[in-house]
Amino acid sequence: MPDFDRIDLMNYAMYGNDFDPQWDEIRAFIKSNASAQKELEEIKRTVPSPHLGKRRMPNAPTSDPREMSGENPNAEPRKPSSGNASKSWWQKILGD
C-alpha cells in the first residue's frame, strides 16, 4: 500500500468522495492509519469545503442596470460626436 502525505489527504478532503474508485487506495490508507484519520479530521476542520462557493442572493435585482440609472433600456447606445471621429487617436494627440 502506498504511503500518502498531507497533500494527498488534503486533496481527498477537498475533492474525494466515498463512491469514486479512484480514491479507493487513500480510503484504505485512512482506514488503516489512525494518524491519517486524525490528520484528515484536522484538515476538514481547517480547510473550507470547495462545495460552499458563492451563493446567489435570493432577492438580488434581476433588472437591467440601465433602468436603475434612469436610462431608457430601449434607447440606442451612445455614439461619439462626428466632429473628431474621423481623426485617429495619434492625430488627436499630435494635434494634426
Describe the protein in words.
With about 100 residues, this protein is mainly alpha-helical. The chain is about 45% helix and about 0% strand. It is built from five helices and no strands. The protein has helices spanning about 5-15, 25-30, 35-45, 65-70, 90-95. Helix 2 (about 25-30) packs across helix 3. The longest helix has 13 residues, at about 35-45. The mean pLDDT is about 75.
Query: For the residues shown, what is the average pLDDT?
Result: 77
Low-confidence stretches: none
Percent range for β-strand residues: under 5%
Give the termini separation: 77 Å
Helix content: 40-55%
What is the helix tally?
A: 5
Please outline the major beta sheet. Answer: none
Rg (C-alpha, Å):
29 Å
Question: SSE order in H/E notation?
Answer: HHHHH
- Total number of β-strand segments? 0
Please tell me what the overall shape is.
elongated
Question: What structural category do the secondary elements indicate?
Answer: mainly alpha
